[in-house]
Design brief:
Blueprint: E1 15-20, E2 35-40, E3 48-50, E4 55-58, E5 62-66, E6 68-70, E7 76-85, E8 98-102, E9 110-120, E10 125-135, E11 145-152, E12 162-169, E13 182-185, E14 188-189, E15 193-196, E16 209-217, E17 224-229, E18 248-250, E19 259-261, E20 263-267, H1 269-273, H2 290-301, H3 320-331, H4 334-348, H5 383-392, H6 400-412, H7 432-449, H8 452-470, H9 474-479, E21 490-491, E22 512-515, H10 519-533, H11 538-552, E23 556-559, E24 564-567, H12 569-574, E25 594-595, H13 601-604, H14 618-631, H15 635-652, H16 666-672, H17 676-686, E26 707-709, H18 711-714, E27 724-728, E28 740-744, E29 753-760, E30 763-771, H19 773-776, E31 790-793, E32 804-807, E33 815-818, E34 836-839, E35 844-849, E36 858-863, E37 871-873, E38 880-882, E39 898-900, E40 909-912, E41 917-919, E42 921-922, E43 927-928, E44 932-933, E45 943-951, E46 960-965, E47 978-984, E48 990-992, H20 994-998, E49 1019-1022, E50 1031-1034, E51 1044-1048, E52 1054-1057, E53 1075-1078, E54 1087-1091, E55 1101-1106, E56 1112-1119, E57 1131-1136, E58 1142-1147, E59 1149-1152, E60 1155-1157, ...
Parallel strand pairs: 4-10, 56-64
Antiparallel strand pairs: 1-2, 3-6, 5-8, 7-9, 9-10, 11-17, 11-20, 12-16, 13-14, 13-17, 15-16, 18-19, 21-22, 22-25, 23-24, 26-55, 27-28, 28-29, 29-30, 31-32, 32-33, 33-34, 35-36, 36-37, 37-38, 39-40, 40-41, 41-44, 42-43, 45-46, 46-47, 47-48, 49-50, 50-51, 51-52, 53-54, 54-55, 56-61, 57-58, 57-62, ...
C-alpha cells in the first residue's frame, strides 16, 4: 500500500531523461537547440527509526513513548505508532514522534509491543519496536502488616520440625498477587507455601484470604511471632505444599477423636476487625471485658464440655462452629478457635456427600447426625466452612459443588416456607428461623463459590421477604391489619408447620403476628447480605423489623419523658415477670416469643405468646435493634432503640448469667453466631455512614423511578398519523430544546407529525406546538419511503450542523433521506428538500457512522431477505468504502448491527449479535479485521434486529452489550421476549452475566406478555433515577401492555418495574404503540414519549415527565471532526472528583437502526463534583477536566473547548470561536 510521499518506498535508484527545451527569444537564435541528457539521481538512503529502549512501568499510569529518527540524505516527514501485541490500549496522536497511553490495570507482569514507523521525504521507511512491560501497581492504599502468633496446643508436646498451616483473611483490594505475601520471623523472610483462598469476587476479585504453610518449624522453645506483609517475597524459595493433616493431632473421645492442628496460629484480633471476613464489629477490650468474661464462663461451665459423640442433633442447631469462630475473632482466645475447628470437623463429617441431588425429601448437602432429618434445612450451615478456610486454611472436607448443594438443600428443606416464593395467601406457612437459616446458607455459599444460581436465590429471597413485610395484601386490608408493623406477619397456627394452611382459621387477628427473637435469623442473613450484595431493599427491611421488635416484642414500652421502660397494662395486670433470675433488667427486657399488634390482651399474655424461656434470646435480639438503629434516621427512634439495647446487654451479658444452661447446648450457638453485641458496639462507637464498603458509587435508595403524564398540559394539538410506528424527541433545529416527531409505518402516505418546542426569550418553555407537514415537508408522498424508524442527523454535510431525516429501515425498497435546506439556521422551523435515496439494498437496515475517521458520515447496511450482506458506503454518492460480505464469510447471516467501541481503542467496532461476534475496525488497512466470536446466547432465538444496545452497567469504563430476542410470528410468539447481558472484560472478550443480572427471569419465559410484546419495540438504556447506574427500558409492541423499566440495583442485578407508564389502549389507528426516551423538559431526568391512544385534542401519543428526585446529573453534546457535527463515537467518562470512581460512561452515535443518541445523559447520584474525560474517536484528542459543577448542560469541541452552563434555547454552536471555554487540564 502506498501511504506517504511521491515515490514507492521501495525505489532505490532511478534514471530520468531530463529534456530541456531552450527556446530563443522570438525564435531567431537558431544556435540554441533542444538538448537532452541523462541525469543520474543518487540512491535514496533509508532513514533509521528509534522507538526507545524497552522499559517497565506501573499499571494504570500514563506512559510516554519517545520516538526519534534520522535521514542522512533528506528529512523525516511522517511518524506512525502502532501497537502490535498485548492487551489493547489507546495511543494518543499516533502520527507524532512522542505519544502516550495509559497502561492497563494488571495483576501480573504483562508485555505490550509497539512499532514506530518513520518515512522520509522520498517515501522510504524504517521501523523499530519497543516492549513495555506493565507491572502490577506497587502503590497500595491499604498496606498489609500484621502479626500471627504460633502457639502449640496444650495437649501436645511441640516438636522441632512442625508442619504448620494457617490462613489470613485480607481486606478488599489489599492483595492481588499471591507473590506479594511475605512472612518474616525474627527479622528474616521465611520460605513458605502460599495459595489464595477466598476472593472478593463480587467487587475487585482481589484475594480475600491466603493459606500459608511453614515446614520444619522448631516449636520446642515456645511461641513464635510472625509478621506478614504484602511487600513481596523471593518466590524462588517457595515450598511445595504438604498435606495439612500431617500437622494435626487427634482429640479425645469426648470430641469424637476429631483431628485438629497441633500448632494454632492466633491472629491479631484488632487486625481481624478490619479484614471484612464478617460484617463490621468491635473487638473485646481484653480480660476485663464483661462480655468476653461472660463467654469464657459459658465455655468453662458447660458449653466447652459438649460430648460430641453422645450429643443430640439439637445441640448443633444455629451453627455451633460459626459461633465459636466469631467468639475467637472478637477475643483472640485459642480455646475458642480450637472448639470452633473441632466443631467444624465433627459437623462436616456428617454432611451428606454422595451422588444424590438436593431434594425436598433430602439429598446431598444435608446434615444427618442423630435424629435430624435430612430434609430439615435449618441444620445446614456452610458459614463455618468459610470461616475455617479463611482463619485456619483448612478446606479439606468440601469442594464448591458440596457448598452449593448445601445451600440448595437448605432452601428445599421443610420448614422453609415462603423462603423465595411470593407470600400470596393469608395463611401460608412461614417460620423466621427457616427462612433466615436458608438465607445464611446461601450468602455463605455465594461468598465461597460465586455461584450465579445461589446469587439469584439470595435476591429472590430478599424480594420475597420485602414483599411479605411491606406490601399491603388484600387480607391486611380486609381485616384492618394496617399499617404494617414491620414484622414478618403470619398466622401462629402455621408457624413452623404447627398446622396446615388449609386448617388454620382465616381472618384471625389473635393469631396474627411474628416471632421476635426468631426474626434475628432473618436479620443476620440480611445484614450479612447487605455487605456483600449492596441490595438496596435491605436497609428499609432491617429498619422496619428492628423497630417492630422493640415496639411489639416486649412486655414494656419506652417512656421518652422519663427515659425508662413502662410495663404495658395487660402484662402489669398479670403481675408476672417471665425472665431468668440473673437478668438484671427483668421488667425492661421481658421478651415475647410471638408479637402482635392485632391480638387481644388475653392472647398476648398467654403462654403461646409469652413463655418463660424467651429472655435467653435477649443477646441475639440485640442484632435486630442494632441493625434498625444503623439505618434509622429519626432521632427519637434511635434513642428508643439504643435504650432497649443497653438494657438487654446490661441485663444479660455478665458472668452471673453464664451458668444459665438447662442442658440446652444450642443456647451458645444462638446467642453468639450473629455477633450481635460486638456489632452494636461497633455501630454505637463508630456511627458509620449508611453504606457498605463494597459500594463504590453513591446511590440514593429512595430514588425510585416514576413518571407522570402531561400530554394535554404541554401539547397544543396532536392529529393522528396514519399507522404511526415510531416516536422520538429529536432536536430538529438545534436550538437545544427537544422537539417531538411521530413517524408512520409507510412515510410516503405523508402523515408523519412534528411538534416544535417553543422557545421564549432564549429559554425552552416546555410547550409544544404542532408544525404542519405543509410547511415543513418532513413527510413526502413521493416514490421513496421511510419505514418504521427515523434518525435525525447531519448526513448531508451541512456547515450548520442541523439534522436531516433519514430512514434506517425500509420495509419495501430503498429508504430515503429528507435533506434540510442549506440556508436554514439553528432555531428556525425546519424545511426539507425533496427526498434522495439513502438506505440502499431492498428491505435494508441502515445505521450511520464515521468508520474511518474522515469526518464524513457513512452508512452500514444489511438486509434480512435473501442476502444479508454487510456493506459500508457513502450515502450521498453510493460509493463503496468497505465491500459487502459474501455468503461464506463470518457474520454474513446478521441482518442488523450495533456500532460502539468494543475494545477501547477509540475506533468504532461493529457488533453482529445474530452471528455471535463483532468486527474490529483496523485503521491501518482501512477495513475490518477478521470476525471475532465473542457471545454465547443463552436462548436459541436469534437476536432481534434493534435489540442490541451498549451500556456500561457496572461502571468500569467499558461498554457491555445487552441483547433482546423475539419472534414475530408462530405459535410460540407469546413467549417471545428474552434478554441477555454480556459484560465486557476489557480485552475484547465478554462474559455472559445474564443469570446474575436477571435472576433467571430473563431466559425462563417469564417476561412474556401479550402477542408481539416487544419483538421490534426497542431497548433504550438510560439512568432513569440518576443514581449513577444505567437502567434500561423495553418498549411495548402490544396494544394492551406498557413499557417496562429494568432498574439497575448497582450490584449486577436488575429489578423489573412495571406499569410506570400506562398505555391506555392503542386504538385502531395506532399501528404500533412504541416509545422513546429523552429529556424533553431539560431538567436532567430522562422522560418518555409513547405512541398511544390519546384523548380530546391529543391523539395518537402520550408524553410523560420523569418525577425526578434529588440526584445530580450532567448532559453533554460534542462537535466532532469536519462534517461529524453530531459528535459520532465520542466517549465520555464521568468520575467522582473526590474518589476518582467512575460514575457513568457514555457514547454518542447511531447505535442501531432504532436508537441514535447525540446527547449524553449521565446520572451522578449524590456526587456534587465531577472529573470528566472526553475521548474523541479515531485516535483523536483526549481531554480531562476537573471539578465540573453538576446539574448543568455542557458542549465540548474537538479543540478542547468545554462550554459549561450552556443554556438550551440559545442554539447549539458549531464552533468554539467566541464561546466562553473551560480548557482541559
Amino acid at each position: 500500500m502506498k501511504l506517504f510521499g511521491f515515490l514507492e518506498a521501495t525505489t532505490k535508484f532511478s534514471t530520468f531523461i531530463l529534456c530541456l527545451c531552450l527556446l530563443g527569444c522570438g525564435g531567431e537564435d537558431s544556435s540554441l537547440n533542444e538538448q537532452a541528457q541523462n541525469v543520474e539521481i543518487p540512491e535514496n538512503i533509508d532513514p533509521t527509526a528509534n522507538a526507545g529502549d524497552d522499559k517497565s512501568v506501573q499499571s494504570d499510569t500514563v506512559v510516554l513513548l519517545t520516538g526519534s529518527a534520522s535521514d542522512p540524505d533528506g528529512m523525516i516527514t511522517e511518524y506512525l505508532w502502532q501497537q502490535i501485541s498485548g492487551q489493547t490500549v489507546t495511543i494518543i496522536d499516533i502520527s507524532q514522534s512522542d505519544v502516550q497511553f495509559t497502561s492497563p490495570k494488571v495483576t501480573q507482569p504483562t508485555m505490550l509491543e509497539f512499532q514506530l514507523t518513520v518515512i522520509d521525504n522520498l517515501g522510504a521507511k524504517a521501523t523499530d519496536t519497543i516492549i513495555i512491560t506493565i507491572d502490577p501497581s506497587t502503590v497500595n492504599n491499604q498496606q498489609l502488616r500484621t502479626t500471627v502468633t504460633l502457639q502449640p496446643d496444650t495437649k501436645i508436646e511441640p516438636h522441632t520440625n512442625e508442619l504448620i498451616t494457617f490462613a489470613l483473611p485480607i481486606a478488599e483490594g489489599v492483595v492481588n498477587d499471591i507473590a506479594d505475601i511475605q512472612v518474616i520471623a525474627q527479622g528474616m523472610e521465611q520460605p513458605i507455601f502460599a495459595k489464595a483462598g477466598l476472593r472478593w469476587h463480587w467487587s475487585d476479585n482481589s484475594i480475600r484470604s491466603v493459606t500459608i504453610q511453614l515446614q520444619n518449624v522448631d516449636m520446642s522453645t515456645g511461641n513464635i511471632t510472625l509478621t506478614i506483609t504484602n511487600n513481596g517475597r523471593d518466590t524462588q524459595k517457595d515450598l511445595l505444599e504438604q498435606p495439612q493433616n500431617n500437622g494435626w493431632a487427634l482429640a479425645a473421645s469426648n470430641k469424637a477423636n476429631m483431628p485438629y492442628p497441633r500448632i494454632f496460629a492466633l491472629h491479631d484480633k484488632e487486625y481481624l476487625t478490619t479484614s471484612g471476613l464478617i460484617p463490621q464489629y468491635a473487638s473485646s477490650q481484653g480480660v476485663n471485658d464483661a462480655f468476653e468474661q461472660y463467654q469464657v464462663e459459658q465455655f468453662k461451665q458447660w458449653s466447652g464440655g459438649l460430648n460430641f459423640s453422645i450429643s443430640s442433633g439439637a445441640n448443633w442447631l444455629f451453627d455451633r462452629s460459626s459461633a465459636y469462630f466469631k467468639a475467637y475473632m472478637t477475643t483472640g482466645r485459642v480455646e475458642f478457635l480450637k472448639e470452633a475447628f473441632l466443631s467444624k470437623q465433627f459437623y462436616f463429617s456428617h454432611v451428606r456427600d454422595d451422588d444424590s441431588s438436593p431434594s425436598q425429601s433430602g439429598g446431598r448437602g444435608c446434615w444427618t447426625w442423630g435424629s435430624v432429618a435430612c430434609a430439615d434445612g435449618k441444620y445446614i450451615a456452610p458459614q463455618q466452612a468459610k470461616l475455617a478456610w479463611a482463619l485456619t486454611g483448612d478446606d479439606s472436607q468440601w469442594d464448591n459443588s458440596l457448598i452449593i448443594d448445601m445451600a440448595l438443600q437448605s432452601d428445599l428443606g421443610w420448614n422453609q416456607y415462603a423462603s423465595r416464593d411470593s407470600f400470596d395467601s393469608e395463611n401460608e406457612g412461614f417460620t423466621e428461623r427457616g427462612a433466615g437459616m436458608a438465607g445464611l446458607a446461601e450468602i455463605a455459599a455465594y461468598e465461597m463459590t460465586a455461584d450465579a444460581t445461589i446469587f439469584n436465590h439470595i435476591n429472590q429471597r430478599i424480594s420475597s421477604l420485602a414483599n411479605m413485610q411491606q406490601n399491603e395484601h388484600q387480607w391486611d386490608k380486609t381485616n384492618g391489619w394496617l399499617p404494617k408493623t414491620g414484622g414478618f406477619e403470619h398466622n401462629l397456627d402455621v408457624h413452623e408447620g404447627n398446622n396446615s394452611a388449609t386448617s388454620a382459621p382465616i381472618n384471625d387477628s389473635s393469631s396474627r403476628g411474628f416471632s421476635t427473637w426468631m426474626s434475628e435469623n432473618i436479620a443476620d442473613f440480611l445484614w450479612q447480605s447487605y455487605w456483600i450484595t449492596s441490595n438496596q431493599e435491605i436497609p428499609e427491611m432491617l429498619r422496619k423489623l428492628g423497630n417492630a421488635v422493640d415496639l411489639y416484642g416486649f412486655t414494656s414500652t419506652y417512656n421518652a419523658t422519663t427515659g425508662e421502660h413502662d410495663t404495658l397494662a395487660p402484662f402489669a395486670a398479670i403481675g408476672d415477670i417471665r425472665a431468668k433470675s440473673c437478668n438484671k433488667t427483668k421488667e425492661d427486657t421481658d421478651l415475647l416469643y410471638f408479637a402482635s399488634a392485632w391480638a387481644n390482651d388475653s392472647v398476648k399474655t398467654s403462654g403461646d405468646f409469652w413463655p418463660y424461656y424467651s429472655d435467653t434470646h435477649n443477646i441475639e435480639t440485640v442484632l435486630l435493634l442494632a441493625n434498625a438503629y444503623y439505618f434509622e434516621e429519626n432521632t427519637a427512634n434511635k434513642t428508643r432503640l439504643s435504650a432497649r439495647i443497653e438494657k438487654l446487654i446490661s441485663g444479660w451479658a455478665h458472668v452471673g448469667c453464664a451458668n444459665v444452661f438447662s442442658n440446652v447446648h444450642r443456647l451458645f450457638n444462638w446467642q453468639h453466631r450473629s455477633n450481635a453485641i460486638r456489632t452494636w458496639q461497633w455501630i454505637n462507637e463508630e456511627q458509620p455512614t449508611v453504606k457498605p464498603p463494597t459500594t463504590t458509587d453513591p446511590k440514593d435508595s429512595d430514588a425510585m423511578v416514576s413518571f407522570g403524564e402531561v400530554s394535554r398540559q404541554v401539547i397544543d394539538y396532536a392529529p393522528m398519523s396514519h399507522q404511526p410506528f415510531w416516536i422520538g424527541m429529536p432536536d430538529v433545529n438545534n436550538d437545544g430544546c427537544p422537539d417531538l416527531f411521530a413517524g408512520t409505518h409507510n412515510d410516503n402516505a405523508g402523515t408523519s407529525q412534528m411538534w416544535l418546542h417553543k422557545v421564549v426569550e432564549g429559554e425552552c418553555s416546555d410547550q409544544f406546538t404542532h408544525y404542519s407537514n405543509n410547511n415543513g415537508k418532513y413527510s413526502q408522498s413521493d416514490s421513496g419511503r421511510i419505514t418504521s424508524r427515523y434518525i435525525f442527523s447531519n448526513v448531508t454535510e451541512k456547515s450548520s450542523g442541523l439534522p436531516d431525516i433519514f430512514g434506517s429501515d425500509a420495509d419495501g425498497g430503498d429508504s430515503v433521506i429528507y435533506p434540510l435546506f442549506d440556508d436554514i439556521d439553528a432555531g428556525i422551523a425546519p424545511i426539507y428538500k425533496s427526498e434522495i435515496i439513502g438506505c440502499r439494498g431492498g428491505k435494508a437496515r441502515c445505521s450511520a457512522l464515521d468508520l474511518n475517521g474522515d469526518g464524513n458520515i457513512e452508512f452500514i447496511v444489511s438486509s434480512d431477505i435473501t442476502d444479508p450482506r454487510r456493506r459500508v458506503y457513502d450515502p450521498l454518492t453510493n460509493t463503496t468504502i468497505i465491500p459487502e460480505l459474501t455468503n461464506n464469510m463470518h457474520g454474513y447471516e446478521s441482518s442488523s448491527y450495533l456500532t460502539v467501541d468494543i475494545d477501547g481503542d477509540s475506533w468504532p467496532d461493529v457488533v453482529a449479535g445474530r452471528s455471535n461476534g463483532y468486527w474490529r475496525y483496523n485503521p491501518v488497512k482501512g477495513d475490518f479485521d477478521e470476525f471475532t466470536f465473542a457471545f454465547t446466547h443463552p436462548v436459541s432465538r436469534p437476536v432481534t434486529p434493534n435489540m442490541q444496545v451498549p451500556l456500561d452497567y457496572d461502571n468500569d469504563g467499558d461498554f457491555d452489550i445487552l441483547f433482546g430476542y423475539g419472534k414475530w410470528s408462530g405459535g410460540d410468539k407469546i413467549n417471545e421476549f428474552y434478554l441477555s447481558l454480556h459484560r465486557n472484560n476489557g480485552d475484547g472478550t465478554f462474559t455472559d452475566v445474564t443469570q446474575i443480572a436477571g435472576g433467571g427471569s430473563w431466559t425462563d419465559g417469564s417476561l412474556k406478555n401479550q402477542n408481539n410484546w416487544t419483538t421490534y419495540g426497542g431497548i433504550y438504556p438510560g439512568d432513569f433515577n440518576n443514581d449513577g447506574y444505567t437502567d434500561f427500558m423495553t418498549m411495548t409492541q402490544s396494544y394492551s401492555n406498557s413499557p417496562r423499566v429494568f432498574q439497575n440495583n448497582g450490584n449486577g442485578t436488575f429489578t423489573i418495574l412495571k406499569n410506570l407508564i400506562v398505555n391506555g389502549g392503542a386504538g385502531v389507528d395506532v399501528f404500533r404503540p412504541w416509545g422513546n426516551i429523552g429529556d424533553w423538559n431539560n431538567d436532567g431526568f430522562i422522560d418518555v414519549a409513547i405512541l398511544s391512544k390519546g384523548s380530546d385534542h391529543i391523539e395518537g401519543l402520550k408524553l410523560y415527565q420523569n418525577n425526578a428526585n434529588n440526584n445530580h446529573w450532567l448532559k453533554i453534546r460534542a462537535r466532532g471532526l469536519n462534517n461529524n457535527t453530531d459528535g459520532y463515537h465520542t466517549k465520555f467518562i464521568f468520575r467522582d472528583s473526590t474518589t476518582s470512581k467512575i460514575i457513568a460512561t457514555r457514547y454518542l452515535g447511531n447505535f442501531n437502526q432504532a436508537d441514535a443518541r447525540f446527547i449524553a445523559y449521565a446520572g451522578l447520584g449524590t456526587v456534587s463534583s465531577i472529573d470528566l474525560t472526553v475521548e474523541f474517536p479515531h485516535n483523536g484528542p483526549q481531554y480531562h477536566y476537573s471539578n465540573i459543577d453538576v446539574d448543568n448542560e455542557l458542549v465540548v469541541f474537538r479543540d478542547g473547548c468545554l462550554m459549561q452552563n450552556w443554556q438550551p434555547g440559545i442554539g447549539w454552536p458549531t464552533t468554539s470561536v467566541g464561546q466562553a471555554c473551560t480548557n482541559p487540564n
